[in-house]
Amino acid sequence: MPCSSYMFRMKCRNKIGWSSFSKESDIATTDAAPPDTPNKVFASRVNPDMVHIHWHAPRDNGARITCYVMRGKRVGGIWQEKYSGGADSYVDAEVEGGNKYMYEVRAINSWNRQLTPPPEWTEYKENLKLEKARNAHMRGGKEKKGEGGDEDVDPVVRFRMKRFKFFKELREWNRAPKDRTKLIDIKIRRSHLFTDTLVLFSHYGRTDLLKKPRIIFSGEEGIDSGGLTKDWFLALSRSLTVDVQKIFNAASNGHLEIHQGSEPTPQQLQKFKFAGMVLGKALYERQFLDMPFTKIMYKLILGKDVGIDDLKEVDETLHKSLCWMMDNDVTDIIYETFSVTIVDPVTKKSEEMPLCEDGENRDVTEENKGEYVKLLGEWRTHFSVMQQLESFKQGLNMLCPDNLLKQFTIQELELLFNGKKNIDSDEIRAYTIYQGKIDGASKIVLWFWQLLRDMEVEDKMKLLKFVTGSDRVPLDGFHPPFNITDGEDMTGDMLPRAHTCFNQIVLPRYKAYRVMKEKVKVAIDNTEGFDLS
Q: Which of 24, 159, 390, 395 lies in the 20 to 30 Å Cα band around 14?
């Protein structure tokens, strides 16, 4: 049997008789194997609009099943892949009435995923006579974390434990009141989001920052019961990355570092302090930002050392040059001193900045090149923007001290600041409630999940923001739950409505999937701001 443990004993025989059994052998464990073939697929619903296909999980044979692949075809037609993912059901609506269809499914685990080419399909066919259908999707069973794995502790569980402790200690450190009835109104113009918020924050102390924000967008009727706050944090964090502000700029991998063109003037340092205050306030309010920092930036926040290897992420050209210096003799090739050229922010004149004492008069040689490489790498990664970094951390520390963040890894800090960017329709569906004359098996609901699953990432984020006010999935699920409501009072030519404070979307009773797809697309592409309805 695959992935099974065995022990062996032996005895022998001659013409006189049998010996006794030997002592048992060491334990021997067989390798994992591909999963068993799934049982025959079956349909729970066949009607003029769709067919709902299901399958049961087979035995995994020692390696956790990571994916199911289902494909189907019209009898006499060509096989087409319909679904690939962790669910155990699928609603097929790419069909035409009056035809017969066949379906097959295979399971994949970490063992047979490595096979090239993949093993042959085992076909299980279900002949279904349909009349008419379009698109839909249904979530099935959800994989359990850690099954069949080698990890002793689920990293997700570990992170959640750290995060729970962090938020508890953050409240205690700030002596936060249990009843947060004191609000601070933040009235801003959406078109001047950065400037208006900066002016307000420049007058705030810790006492003000501890109050619960109530966002008021000038010219909009929306009332903030949570949705506007989520939208404000995300939009504000994105405004910090606009190049004209010279706070953060994107490295080659798209992640953010301190803007290399920023100057340590009082006005600019105030912007960096403001950026830190925004991050600290977001952590205190348990809100997400859109500020994916470089590993170097996370290391600097955590107080970790930054080395020459980290330089590659932000300045690959300089990294290659310094690596070349370390691998080659630089005699009569490199004519540099232990200094860099900078521009004075006041006089705008170029001047030499020594990397060490008397560095401008110290030549780089084969003997001391290692020290030069180290100092220049440190200058590029953080010493050149040290004042900006200190101002940023000063703002952050108003609500969040350094020691509370140091328990997290870089990957965990990224998740803590920015949340999950992957939008899994199956995960969202697992925590969804329904209101009105609909349920999880209603046609309009199944169409909605199929639409979300098939969307491009950008549109998924737009839809999530339309419904919840944020384009990120909360780490602990939606509170209140994601809500799909029957728009029985709406006509089929209307756009869907959303109530972000309640994570609610109201869907009219569209007659066709195509119509719903068009209406949802118009809604998410042309909605900015919040109004009463």
A: 24
Cβ atoms of 520 and 463 within 8 Å: the answer is: yes
Q: Are both 146 and 161 inside the same structural domain?
A: no
Element (H, E) at 394: helix 386-396
Using one digit for the tens of pLDDT, what is the confidence trace for 161-213? 889 899 999 999 998 766 667 889 999 999 999 999 999 999 998 889 999 99
323 is catalytic: no
List the catalytic residue out of 12, 67, 356, 501. 501
pTM, rounded to two decimals:
0.65
Residue where a domain terminates, one of 91, 125, 152 = 152
Domain that holds residue 296: 156-305+390-418
Instruction: Give dist(CA 387, CA 269) in Å, integer.
Output: 8
| Cα atoms in the Cβ-side hemisphere of radius 13 Å centred on 113 | 12
**Predicted confidence (pLDDT) per residue in 75-130, tens digit:** 777 888 888 887 888 888 777 767 788 888 888 886 654 333 333 333 333 344 43
Same domain assignment for residues 63 and 79: yes
Contacts of residue 64, Cβ cutoff 8 Å, sequence gap at least 6: 109, 110, 143, 147, 148, 149
Regarding whether 127 and 2 lie in a shared domain, the answer is yes
